[in-house]
Design brief:
The protein has 344 residues and is of the alpha/beta class. The chain has 2 domains: 134 residues, Nucleotidyltransferase, domain 5; 168 residues, Nucleotidyltransferase, domain 5 (2-Layer Sandwich). The protein is 44% helix and 19% strand. It has 11 helices and 10 strands. The strands form 2 sheets. The chain has a 5-stranded mixed β-sheet, sandwiched between helices. Helix 4 crosses helix 11.
Length: 344
C-alpha cells in the first residue's frame, strides 16, 4: 500500500466548459494544475453551448492530461489513483472526462475515484489554506450552484439550503447578457459595479425571512430586466454601472445574511467561500467584513482555484480514497448529482 502522504492523484475535470487536469501529492501538495478554457469559443453565443463544449473536451482532454503530467515532472506510471468529476454538470461534457479517467485507471490498474463537482469546490480551500480543517460552513456560489453546506468532516456534509431556481452565477451571466456585456458576465458585472452607486436602484431580495437558508434569484433577474425595459420605454439614458452595482448588492446582501444565520444555527465559527463567484471582489470583501465584525474565521481560495479546475477534484478524490470511497469501471456521468453524503 503506497504512503498516503506521497501518493500521486491525477485529477480530471470536464463538467462544463473547462478541460482541466492536475497532479496532487498527498492531500494538499499541488504539483500541477492545467486548465484549457473554452470561453473564447462560447463567447460569441453568449453562453455555453453543450454540444460544442463536449466536442472541445474530446479534442482537449488527453493533451491537457499530458501537460499536467509533464508540468508535475511525473509519468503516468507514477500515478497512484485517478479522480474525476462525474456530476453535476453537462452530461456530454462529463462523459468525456469520465471516459478518459476510466480508461487511464484501467490501463494502469490503479483505483478510480468519482468526485462530486460541488464538493470539489469546497476542497479548493484546502489547497489554498494548509491549516484549514473541518468542521466549518461552506458557501458555494458558482454558475450552477448556490448552497450553504455544513461540512462536519472530510466526508460528511449537511445541506443547509440551496437555490430554488437560478444560481447566483447564472443570474450574473443572464443580467450581463441583457445589459449587452460579454460572456462570462460575472467578472464584467464586478468590474462595472465598482464604478456605480449600489444604492441607486432598490432591487428585491427573495426569501429573506430568518431561518430560511434557501436562495432564489429568478425574481431579482426579472426585476433587473423589467427596469431595463422601463428605462428603454421612457427613453431614459441608462447608467449601466448603477444597475450593475445595485444588482450585485442585492445578490451579496442575501448571501452574507444567510451565511451568518447558518453559522449561528450550526454553532460554527469558520466560514469558507467556494465556487466561481468566490472570485467576485465585492462578495469577498463583504463576507470578510461581516466575518471580522462577528468574530468569524473566513477563508476563500486563490482566484485560479475559484474557477472549475482539476486540483480541487484531485484533493476531494484524495480524501475520499483515504476513506475507501472508490468507484468501479461502471462509473457513469450523473448530470443532476447531489451531495454524496447529506445528513439531516
Amino acid at each position: 500500500m503506497p504512503d498516503a502522504e506521497k501518493i500521486l492523484t491525477l485529477g480530471i475535470e470536464s463538467s462544463c466548459d473547462e478541460t482541466a487536469a492536475a497532479v496532487l501529492r498527498g492531500g494538499r501538495e499541488l504539483l500541477s494544475n492545467v486548465i484549457s478554457t473554452q470561453i473564447p469559443v462560447h463567447r460569441k453565443f453568449g453562453g455555453v453551448v453543450p454540444e460544442i463544449a463536449s466536442r472541445r473536451h474530446i479534442v482537449n482532454v488527453m493533451p491537457v492530461i499530458d501537460e499536467a503530467l509533464r508540468t508535475a515532472g511525473v509519468a503516468l506510471a507514477d500515478i497512484g489513483q485517478v479522480a474525476v468529476t462525474y456530476g453535476p454538470g453537462l452530461v456530454g461534457a462529463l462523459l468525456v472526462g469520465v471516459s478518459a479517467a476510466k480508461a487511464l485507471a484501467f490501463a494502469r490498474n490503479v483505483p478510480l475515484v468519482g468526485v462530486n463537482h460541488l464538493e470539489g469546490h469546497i476542497f479548493a480551500n484546502f489547497l489554498s489554506h494548509k491549516g484549514l480543517v473541518p468542521p466549518f460552513m461552506a458557501l458555494v456560489v458558482s454558475g450552477g450552484h448556490t448552497a450553504l453546506i455544513h461540512m462536519r468532516d472530510y466526508n460528511h456534509f449537511s445541506l443547509m439550503g440551496q437555490t430554488r431556481d437560478d444560481a447566483a452565477g447564472e443570474a450574473f451571466d443572464k443580467v450581463a447578457r441583457v445589459m449587452g456585456l460579454p460572456y462570462p458576465g460575472g467578472p464584467e458585472i464586478d468590474r462595472l459595479a465598482a464604478e456605480g452607486d449600489e444604492d441607486a436602484i432598490d432591487f428585491p431580495c427573495a426569501l429573506r425571512e430568518k431561518g430560511n437558508y434557501e436562495f432564489s434569484f429568478s425574481g431579482l433577474k426579472s426585476a433587473v430586466l423589467n427596469y431595463l425595459n422601463e428605462m428603454k420605454m421612457k427613453r431614459v439614458e441608462l447608467n449601466k454601472a448603477d444597475v450593475a452595482a445595485s444588482f450585485q448588492k442585492a445578490v451579496i446582501e442575501v448571501l452574507v445574511q444567510k451565511s451568518l444565520e447558518a453559522l449561528a444555527e450550526a454553532k460554527l465559527d469558520t466560514l469558507v467561500l467556494a465556487g466561481g463567484v468566490a472570485a467576485n471582489s465585492a462578495l469577498e470583501r463583504r463576507l470578510r467584513e461581516a466575518a471580522e465584525a462577528h468574530g468569524i474565521r473566513f477563508y476563500f481560495p486563490s482566484k485560479i482555484l475559484c474557477t472549475d479546475n482539476a486540483a480541487m477534484i484531485a484533493c476531494r478524490g484524495y480524501y475520499q480514497s483515504q476513506a475507501g470511497l472508490f468507484a468501479d469501471l461502471r462509473l457513469n456521468a450523473v448530470p443532476g448529482l447531489s451531495l454524496s453524503d447529506v445528513e439531516a
